[in-house]
Amino acid sequence: MFNLANEAHFTLDLPGLEHDFRVLSFRAHEAISQCYRIELQLVSDQPDLDLEALLQRNAWLGIQHGEGEGTGLHGLIHHAAIGEAGKRLTRYRLELVPHLHYLGLRHNQRIFQHLTVPQIISRVLADHGIQSDAYSFQLGVDYPERDYCTQYDETDLHFIQRLCEEEGIHYHFRHSP
């Protein structure tokens, strides 16, 4: 079966928000043990969307591969900007990042005692509202308790990345709506 030329192969879903965005293009940057970034170029019939209302909102970029098949990428809207306005359509740019990205905005000084690295990471994530049902550890070995673990003037993101590097742990993201 052939796909029609005017059929949308990429869609943007913003739960709880009515919109008429159409995806022109997107670029995704993703690597192991790093936060991903998805840059979207969109058009809308509405020239005056409230961009502030879009920030921090969950988004799902749907990718249709064929009849009935599809996948996608998810994230929080981190950046929203208006582009050129034509006679009928206005361009918009959005940037999606994972919730984990926001751990890079807070510096901390604290001490963890008698915890394993996975337990420390879980506590840091919980401090940011990332609950245990949003991630999973698939570790092959048991990690020893650390008598004393210090975070000193580093972001929460850098801190957990440092702990992962020290223990040989990597992380990646699974995208789901």
From TrEMBL:
<protein>
    <submittedName>
        <fullName>Type VI secretion system secreted protein VgrG</fullName>
    </submittedName>
</protein>
<dbReference type="InterPro" id="IPR006533">
    <property type="entry name" value="T6SS_Vgr_RhsGE"/>
</dbReference>
<dbReference type="Pfam" id="PF05954">
    <property type="entry name" value="Phage_GPD"/>
</dbReference>
